[in-house]
């Protein structure tokens, strides 16, 4: 038998086996990349960056341990690398900067349908659907705040009153007078700064929720409160966090000269969306399987250092903006 060449040997050593693959069940791991070239070499899938100061640098990706890779702006990926990620069960998403949009996703054949099946069962049964919808409102209002027998119409009324009350409190806090939520694409630039910032911040939130929904293998089109839209579930889940994240941020930008850009920048620089990813996954799993015993994620443990072609390693979870 002919002895394998050095390249063949490396290829054989690099070829993953079932035993080499770590077991990833309900725990999802995310990796965001931008301004890199992702390719496959004889050793594995790597991210390649070229800079004037450091030349060409290569970082190998732990593909078998990744559940989802988010490709941001300036990223290119070879078909061979994409095939390896798919073979290892990694979902690949194309996103905007900082994950503020989710444009497309490629799900591997091996992605579990467990959560999709739970979603479809609950969505198709009117009684179960109401249970999930009620659980969503309880996550927003607090546990035990929804009386038994409350209808969806009553829940919508409760939500409307609470959101209006939050608008009123924040408007008083920032001394901007009476606020009324308005979303009119035809009159986009005629809107006040708070409405512009709120629309922009909500769009950022939808992007990262969309990424989490796809990574879990669920359908973004099958919502429990919203319906008739390809992002119905995305809107459902995003509503869980608006009172905490996007609404206060929008009011804080009431005097901004470019509130849309400021809202997007705030999410990106503060890494708020990435911190939110594990929480979205946990909340979605909790809604679809309330009897499951899952550990609440600690957002402080989800971030690692940031790579920079000039400065090297930078601490994650910090605002590295140079402006005000």
From TrEMBL:
Biased composition annotated in UniProt, kind: Gly residues: 314-324
Residues at which Mn(2+) binds: 159, 226, 239
Keyword list, A-Z: Antiviral defense, DNA-binding, Endonuclease, Hydrolase, Magnesium, Manganese, Metal-binding, Nuclease
Top-level taxonomic group: Bacteria
Pfam families listed in its UniProt record: Cas_Cas1
Region (Disordered): 289-324
Cofactor (UniProt): Mg(2+); Mn(2+)
Stored Gene3D superfamilies: CRISPR-associated endonuclease Cas1, C-terminal domain, CRISPR-associated endonuclease Cas1, N-terminal domain
Entries under InterPro entries matching the protein: Cas1, Cas1_I-E, CRISPR-assoc_Cas1, CRISPR-assoc_Cas1_C, CRISPR-assoc_Cas1_ECOLI, CRISPR-assoc_Cas1_N
The enzyme's E.C. designation: 3.1.-.-
A GO biological process held by the record: defense response to virus
GO molecular function: DNA binding; DNA endonuclease activity; hydrolase activity; metal ion binding
Subunit structure: Homodimer, forms a heterotetramer with a Cas2 homodimer.
Family note: Belongs to the CRISPR-associated endonuclease Cas1 family.
HAMAP family attached to this UniProt entry: Cas1
General function of this protein: CRISPR (clustered regularly interspaced short palindromic repeat), is an adaptive immune system that provides protection against mobile genetic elements (viruses, transposable elements and conjugative plasmids). CRISPR clusters contain spacers, sequences complementary to antecedent mobile elements, and target invading nucleic acids. CRISPR clusters are transcribed and processed into CRISPR RNA (crRNA). Acts as a dsDNA endonuclease. Involved in the integration of spacer DNA into the CRISPR cassette.
Name assigned to this protein: CRISPR-associated endonuclease Cas1
Organism of derivation: Streptomyces nodosus
Name of the coding gene: cas1
């Amino acid at each position: 038998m002919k002895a394998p060449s050095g390249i063949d040997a490396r290829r054989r050593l690099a070829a993953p086996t079932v035993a080499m693959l770590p077991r990833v069940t309900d725990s999802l791991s995310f990796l965001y990349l931008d301004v890199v070239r992702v390719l496959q070499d004889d050793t594995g899938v790597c991210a390649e960056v070229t800079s004037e100061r450091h030349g060409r640098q290569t970082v190998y990706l732990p593909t078998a341990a990744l559940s989802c890779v988010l490709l941001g702006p300036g990223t290119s990926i070879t078909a061979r690398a994409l095939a390896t990620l798919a073979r290892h069960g990694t979902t690949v998403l194309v996103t905007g900067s900082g994950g503020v949009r989710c444009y497309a996703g490629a799900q591997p054949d091996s992605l579990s349908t467990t959560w999709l099946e739970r979603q479809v069962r609950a969505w198709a049964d009117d009684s179960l659907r109401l249970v999930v919808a009620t659980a969503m409102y309880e996550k927003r209002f607090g546990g035990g705040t929804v009386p038994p027998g409350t209808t969806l119409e009553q829940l919508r009324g409760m939500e409307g009153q609470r959101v209006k009350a939050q608008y009123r409190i924040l408007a008083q806090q920032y001394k901007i007078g009476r606020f009324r939520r308005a979303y009119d694409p035809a009159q986009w630039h005629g809107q006040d700064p708070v409405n512009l910032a709120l629309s922009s911040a909500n769009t950022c939130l939808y992007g990262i929720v969309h990424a989490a929904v796809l990574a879990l293998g669920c359908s973004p089109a099958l919502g429990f409160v919203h319906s008739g839209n390809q992002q119905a579930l995305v809107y459902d889940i995003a509503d869980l966090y608006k009172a905490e994240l996007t609404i206060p941020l929008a009011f804080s930008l009431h005097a901004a000269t470019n509130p849309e850009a400021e809202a997007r920048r705030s999410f990106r620089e503060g890494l708020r969306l990435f911190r939110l990813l594990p929480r979205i996954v946990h909340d979605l799993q909790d809604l679809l399987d309330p009897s499951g015993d899952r550990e609440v994620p600690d957002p402080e443990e989800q971030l690692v250092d940031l790579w920079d072609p000039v400065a090297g390693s930078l601490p994650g979870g910090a605002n590295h903006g140079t402006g005000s």
